[in-house]
Design brief:
- Pathway: Cofactor biosynthesis; ubiquinone biosynthesis.
- This protein is of the alpha+beta class and 419 residues long.
- 39% of the residues lie in helices and 29% in strands.
- The relative contact order is 0.16.
């Protein structure tokens, strides 16, 4: 006997969990399926003892969405966030520099938050009385089969424990390697940058002063992103910890990672020099990780009774830190579109193909523009073409002139905020 719900969401990460909460708040029956085992409160607390080198640069729009589902309030209470009021972008081989934000009158541009801090807040909210009646979490079980039963019935989802779930609408929020996308036969447009990102947490000699920094190097982008202060020692001397995302050609990244395995100070020395000692020397380095850089876009976001959101639908270069923010904009657009048609139909139509296509027309062109814009920026600053002298001169002068046009800088700031 299949357990029935109005909506099934596969993927319990930040995008999937936020979407589930938004639907439950509107008193829609939703089941969230996450292959990862559920964590106990002790598990969460153990994870919180450690600093995660990875952070998400949450835009104002993403923060607002998290406020709506009641998660941001918990994040703010925990203190595990690092707000930033300025952003500095400059290039190694030119005079141009872009400065976002007003130093004289600081205003929030966004906040850097570790992934598991956001997830903990979302999962705490799922257990709250105002949503728990409508939201069911199925954790620790993998999907083995997706069975489309026709437009009226939607999908049956079979799990590895023998359980069967049924829903009129199936939402794939299961990441870049999306099972939902593959099973639906939706193809991908992909782009390999032939780069690898090295991630780590660093403690710098000078404080970051609530500023996110991005240095455009000939080898790739180097981002220095504020991290929350975790320990009592951190809080006594605040704003010295940062997350690093350093994009490099794959061979160079592998060379540095191997060198770091032999000499623990080697990466710290290389990184300090690459950053042009923007915040002095690097005193500590920890939590080194890496991942290949690619971009991808699903050729379609929707099919009958099925829709993709977040990384299941698109993935972009991390140089602007907009990957999660694009997924959160997907959530806001999908919920708005679903309920607009649901209310128009008097509560009869849910997740119709025409509705899903309206969502796709809203989000896919926007995500495409963002993906190709980031690719263009990477192409202009890194690689053989970017090293040509005329390109360097045009790029340098262009950045210099753009930085002087305040209305244009305010426009860019607004777009980055997702507003």
């Amino acid at each position: 006997m299949a357990t029935s719900a109005q909506t099934l969401i596969i993927g319990g990460g930040i995008v999937g969990a936020t979407l589930a909460l938004k639907l439950a708040q509107q008193q829609q029956k939703v089941t969230l399926i996450d292959a990862r085992p559920a964590l106990t409160e002790a598990d969460w607390q153990q994870r919180l003892l450690q600093r995660d080198a990875r952070v998400f640069a949450l835009s104002i729009a993403s923060i607002e969405l998290l406020k709506q589902v009641g998660a941001w309030q918990l994040i703010a209470k925990s203190g595990r966030k690092a707000d930033y009021t300025q952003m500095q972008v400059w290039q190694q081989d030119g005079r141009g520099e872009l400065n976002f934000g007003d130093e004289a009158v600081p205003q929030l541009l966004g906040s850097m938050v570790e992934p598991f801090v956001i997830e903990q807040a979302l999962y705490q909210r799922m257990a709250a009385d105002d949503v728990s009646e409508y939201l069911t979490l199925v954790a620790g079980h993998k999907v083995t089969l997706l069975d489309w039963r026709g437009t009226q019935q939607g999908y049956e989802v079979h799990l590895d424990n023998g359980q069967t779930l049924q829903g009129k609408l199936l939402i794939g929020a299961d990441g870049r390697g999306s099972l939902v996308r593959r099973e639906a036969g939706i193809e991908l447009d992909t782009l390999d940058y032939h780069q690898t990102a090295i991630c780590c947490a660093i403690k710098t000699q000078q404080p970051h002063r609530a500023t996110a920094r991005q240095l455009m190097l000939p080898t790739g982008t180097l981002a220095l992103l504020p991290l929350a202060d975790v320990t009592e020692d951190d809080k006594a001397n605040p704003q010295h910890w940062q997350s690093v995302v350093w994009s490099l050609p794959r061979n160079k990244a592998l060379e540095l990672l191997q060198l770091n395995d032999i000499d623990r100070d080697s990466l710290r020395t290389e990184l300090a020099a690459a950053s042009q000692y923007a915040l002095g020397d690097i005193e500590r380095l920890e939590s080194v990780a890496s991942f290949p850089l690619t971009a991808q876009q699903a050729k379609h976001y929707v099919k009958e009774n099925l829709v993709l959101v977040g990384d299941a639908a698109h993935g972009v270069h991390p140089l602007a830190g907009q990957g999660l923010n694009l997924g959160m904009l997907d959530v806001a657009a999908l919920v708005a579109t679903l309920f607009e048609d649901y209310q128009r139909s008097g509560g009869k139509c849910w997740g119709e193909l025409a509705t899903l296509r309206r969502y796709e027309r809203t989000r896919r062109p926007h995500n495409s523009v963002m993906m190709h814009s980031f690719s263009l920026m990477n192409w202009l600053f890194a690689g053989d073409f970017a090293a040509l002298r005329p390109v360097q001169q045009i790029r340098s002068e262009g950045m210099y002139q753009v930085g002087k046009i305040k209305p244009l800088m305010r426009f860019f700031t607004q777009k980055a905020s997702g507003l």
